[in-house]
Design goal:
By secondary structure, this protein is of the alpha/beta class. The chain is built from eleven helices and 14 strands. The longest helix has 14 residues, at about 165-175.
Length: about 280
């Protein structure tokens, strides 16, 4: 009976320094070498997933951008991509601009992620860009015109960051529209809020179900810490929240394990697979 193990990254598999510890990597590789079906489901893009998971022998596609696509590191190709239509892209950009915000537009072309932004960057936005500049799989275009942003094509994600007041209004309007999937949450490492806008039906949960079908898994264990992990917990046969998870996640999960700083996910995967091997 194939068993699929899927974990969130930030605050879950990653420690507070945003790394997979040496111990976690060894434990996961041990389980994978014995046949464990293991991968990640994250809001991150392949550009940073590739770096963060470099010491883990990830053999399954990674669920990236909150389920908007999967990434096969062996072929460096996106699969199962869910794009936002041109019409809905323009409508969403208008909603952001009504709140005085300029979003980041994530577009896929020839396996490369191109990110467009118009206007000046806030201090937080600049820090966000600086931490992701120069990556092999992502290219920023920060001098885009207003028209280039609203007319962007092959858009897979519309991303914004800022205060709760501004972004909550964007989330409210787009959720009411019914044509989008919206993820609105607080950043683990700051008091900033993030909003991710996808085409309708995109979620970690839907991507988890698709991946489980692809690998023929009958059982699924998921690990998470934040609100955008709750949907995939709902479709799993077993769900574990790390001890540092949000209160809502702690009450949703089937069980609670140690914290992200204690290699909790890797320990649990290794032990669980050993018992069911």
């Amino acid at each position: 009976m194939p068993h699929l193990y899927i974990t969130d990254l930030d605050g879950t598999l990653l420690d507070d320094t945003s790394h997979v510890s040496e111990r976690s990597a060894k434990l996961l590789n041990n389980a994978i070498s014995r046949g464990a079906l293991f991968t990640v489901a994250t809001a991150r893009t392949p550009a940073t997933v590739e770096i963060l998971m470099k010491d883990v022998d990830l053999r399954l596609p990674a669920i990236v951008m909150t389920g908007a696509a999967m990434w096969d590191s062996s072929t460096s190709l996106y699969t199962e991509a869910r794009f936002i239509s041109d019409e809905l892209t323009r409508k969403a950009v208008d909603v952001f601009r009504c709140q005085g915000l300029e979003p980041f537009m994530y577009c896929i072309r020839h396996g490369m992620l191109h990110v467009y932004h118009h206007g000046e960057l806030s201090e937080q936005q600049q820090a966000f860009v600086d931490a992701r500049t120069g990556l092999r799989l992502k290219q920023f275009h920060l001098d885009a015109t207003a028209a280039q942003v609203e007319d962007a094509q092959n858009v897979i994600l519309i991303f914004g960051m800022g205060t709760y007041d501004h972004l909550s209004r964007v989330a409210e309007v787009l959720n009411a529209d019914g044509e989008y999937s919206v993820s609105f949450y607080e950043d683990n490492a700051s008091d900033q809020y993030y909003i991710e806008v996808f085409t309708r039906g995109v979620s970690k949960a839907e991507a988890v179900k698709r991946l489980a079908a692809m690998v023929g898994a009958d059982e699924i264990t998921v690990y998470g810490d934040n609100l955008n992990d709750i949907s995939m917990m709902a479709v799993a046969s077993d769900s574990a929240a790390v001890a540092n998870a949000k209160p809502e996640v702690l009450t949703t999960a089937s069980r609670i394990i140690a914290s992200n700083n204690e290699d909790a996910v890797a320990v649990d995967v290794n032990n669980h697979f050993r018992c069911h091997d």
